[in-house]
Amino acid sequence: MRLRHIELFHAVLTTGSLTGAADLLNISQPAASKALQHAEHQLGFALFSRVRGRLQPTQEALLLRHRVEKIIQDLHGLQRLTANIGRPESYPLRVTCTPTLAQALVPDATTMLRKAFPGTTAELFTQHSAEMCESLMLHEADIGLTLQDAGHQGLRQEPLCHGHVMVIAPPGWWSAAELAQPLPVTALAGQPMIGIAMQDALGRMLQSHLTQVVPAPQTSVWVQTYQLAYALVAQGEGLALVDPFTASRSSGKAVQTRPLKLQLDVVLYAVYRLDSPLNPVQKHFLSLVRQLAQHMLAPA
């Protein structure tokens, strides 16, 4: 199929009629009809049949639909890219991050960036680290922010900030004197805890240390994100081990926080492709992320 046939096919799928497709593509209805006939002649099968005055896709057309929609999406992306080339301040910022970092760090950094570069558009989404690496390699995102070592040979990872695993508890769980001291991991013995499903390296590391505690913590609820753990702790379900960014959300009213005496390091990494040097906007964004992260984790 030629590109003009693909565009017409997609337009008819979208509007359900040749007249609507012609209007969408800014061509005449006879021209649209002739182009559709030409496309079907080249393909050797019909793409649409008329049902109650509307064009309905044939079975063959339905097989093509997903691939055609992907081509149209890529074409729109190419059009945006060509419009932005030569204007670095207008390059789209495409960032994927873990759910923890989407709570405050990434939104705050994006807002600050757009004040410095008002013409910049941003595409932000959340993924776990394995999915993040795939999105970066497929050029679906340009920067990833994660709390674990990506370990991918096609990606560069840049450490931005260091912190430690924290323990959070419902309000009033610890006294003021206890809050001033790190919590020994042995103090978790027999305590009610929210379990973190072992989907990443940090979760596996936490679980490996908890298995050495005797008697074992009492875990009745398992979650896959630290945000869910935080919410359950705030509801009084028990304690949880979380990353320092999740813990930094607390003002002391929703949950109490203490560092774990074991001092398990947590590193915030920026991840990006080795073959795609960062442009000025992306570099400025990472500088903002670094500053904000260090401020969030600074001792009170």
TrEMBL record:
Protein name: LysR family transcriptional regulator
Domain HTH lysR-type per the UniProt entry, residue ranges: 1-58
GO terms of biological process kind: lysine biosynthetic process via diaminopimelate; positive regulation of gene expression
Organism: Rhodanobacter glycinis
GO molecular function, one term: sequence-specific DNA binding
Keywords associated with the record: DNA-binding, Transcription, Transcription regulation
Pfam families: HTH_1 (PF00126), LysR_substrate (PF03466)
Family per similarity comment: Belongs to the LysR transcriptional regulatory family.
SUPFAM superfamilies: Periplasmic binding protein-like II, Winged helix' DNA-binding domain
Matches recorded under Gene3D superfamilies: 3.40.190.290, Winged helix-like DNA-binding domain superfamily/Winged helix DNA-binding domain
InterPro entries with a match to the protein in the record: LysR_HTH_N, LysR_subst-bd, WH-like_DNA-bd_sf, WH_DNA-bd_sf
Domain of life: Bacteria
